[in-house]
């Protein structure tokens, strides 16, 4: 069994939280808080974790911070670690070649730190290029060749810097021997998500939902694994939906999905980039993080009422569990 086949086997049907990165208001990573957070997440029912992803502000972190983050998670987690790789904000890539090289370098760095796979951030420049689809496939090939790791494609919505992957690109990506699957994060584009899942069906690769606001529906459409920011806190809300779906318990699935939807409604809303801060507030409420390390300096300012709404939702869900 190849490394890619082994990864597919280990991850199918599981939840991978796209974990947050504890920081102070200046963006300084709190390593002590990170260790405690990693230990608590690792104790949940998860298949692995995703680091350096959008929820963890991976492209904003300095290289030394990324290294510390991955090392701490590697110590805490026995399961696979998927590292998001792309163009760090510090790279200041001025052309496509430099963006390509920065993505490959980040993947090589992840491999050296013990990552089991990499998820390739989309390069939005490909969308307008005549040969963009071929170039996107070649980038994934090059990342896999240089790092020696399986790769996940990443259909990321435009609000987070991505672009729509056409079904033909998804089919070509999943035809690569090094491709373990594709993550879908279309935000609220149900048709795009459905079309992408149809393109991935029959590939034998992972169809990974990243649809925080369409989680239950994406499973019904054909997704089989989850890599989601909404699992950065209250992991059980997410894992219970996936477990109920795979067990065939329709009533439990409907109940669990409704609960997760209510949490998503309070955390994944406009401005959508505010979801990272909202998830950090949820992590504080749950006791995963201290208040001092629950800051997202890279997101928008949010009114105080939004935190109150997140807490009210969590308190209501907790009462229903009693």
Quick recap of the structure?
This protein is an alpha/beta fold. The chain is built from 12 helices and 8 strands. Helix 3 (63-76) links the parallel strand 2 and strand 3.
Structural commentary:
This protein is an alpha/beta fold and 322 residues long. It is built from twelve helices and eight strands. The protein has helices spanning 3-11, 31-42, 63-76, 96-112, 132-147, 167-174, 190-200, 215-221, 235-247, 250-267, 275-286, 304-321, and strands at 15-17, 49-51, 81-85, 117-120, 151-156, 179-185, 206-209, 225-228. Strands 1-8-7-6-5-4-3-2 form an eight-stranded parallel sheet. Strand 2 (49-51), helix 3 and strand 3 (81-85) form a beta-alpha-beta unit. Helix 10 (250-267) runs antiparallel to helix 12. The chain is globular, with a radius of gyration of 18 Å. The protein starts with a helix and ends with a helix.
List keywords for this structure.
single chain, 322 residues, alpha/beta, eight-stranded parallel beta sheet, 11% strand
Report helical residue fraction.
40-55%
Rg to the nearest angstrom? 18 Å
Indicate the structural class.
Answer: alpha/beta
Uncertain regions spanning at least 5 consecutive residues? none
Give the strand order of the largest sheet, numbering strands 1, 2, ... along the chain: 1-8-7-6-5-4-3-2
Shape: globular
Percent of residues in beta strands = 5-15%
Alpha plus pi helix count: 12
Q: Mean of the pLDDT scores?
A: 95
Reported for the largest beta sheet, the result is: 8 strands, parallel
- Tell me how many strands there are: 8
User: Could you state the order of secondary-structure elements as H and E?
Assistant: HEHEHEHEHEHEHEHEHHHH
Distance between the termini: 45 Å
